[in-house]
Amino acid sequence: MTDSFIFGLDSSIKNSSLLPTEKLYNATGQNSGNLAFHFAVEQMVHTNQSSIGWGSEPSELATKSGTAILPCANQVGAHANYGWLSDKVDKLPSNVIALGLGAQSGTTGNIPEVPEGTLNWIKAMGSKSIGSKSNIGVRGDFTKKVLEHYGVDEKVEVLGCPTLFLNPDKDLGFKIAEKMATFPKRVAVPSGHQKWHHLARIEQSLAHIVTETDGSYIGQSPFEMFKLTRGEVTQLEAEHFKECKNYIMPFASDEYFIRWCNRHGNLFFDIPNWMEHYRKYDFIVGPRIHGAVLGLQVGIPSLCIVHDSRTLELCQTLKVPYVMAGEVIKGFSLEQLWSKVQFDAQEFTENRTKLATKFCNFFDGNGVKYNHWLDQIAGM
Question: Is the pTM of this model over 0.90?
Answer without folding.
Answer: yes
